[in-house]
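Suppose a colleague, Dr. K., hands you the sequence of a protein chain of 158 amino acids and asks what its three-dimensional shape might be. Before reaching for any lab equipment, you can write down a predicted structure in token form. Begin with the sequence itself:
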Amino acid sequence: FQGGGYGLAVLSKFPILETHVHRLPDGAEPRVVLEVVTQPGGTGKKLSFASIHLDWTKEKFRMAQMKVLEEKLAPRKHPVVLAGDFNAEPGSGAMTFVSEHWSVVPKTGNRFTHSATEPRIEIDYVVTRGLGEGASCRVVDEKVASDHRPLVSVIPWP
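The predicted structure, expressed as tokens, is then:
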């Protein structure tokens, strides 16, 4: 942003067992999804957490990126959390595709995430697969850390 760099990161208090960088079809810029595999709480059960940032320019690019990502993550036998900037509003083709394959964690309160200073659209989400019900998400009133408002999600672990 304004001459700075950007990218994806995942921070975990649990040891990261595996890291995967999934190359997505290009849009206006090259795109990847960063996936880490961990074992939360010493349960011995694996969890994948993936950080996403889809194309911001065209729906056809986002659709192609989500279809490729679905192919890459579909074989996971353990739960998966996918979170970040989908650059897609509710009801768009990309989010319709996502909701056919994932559970979109509902937001409580304000759902708008962009822009950080004057949020008017919802384009950031937390979605899960294999984790059941009871997850929640909220938008944090933070205007400085990013050009998007951050999300905090609570997801029950089996």
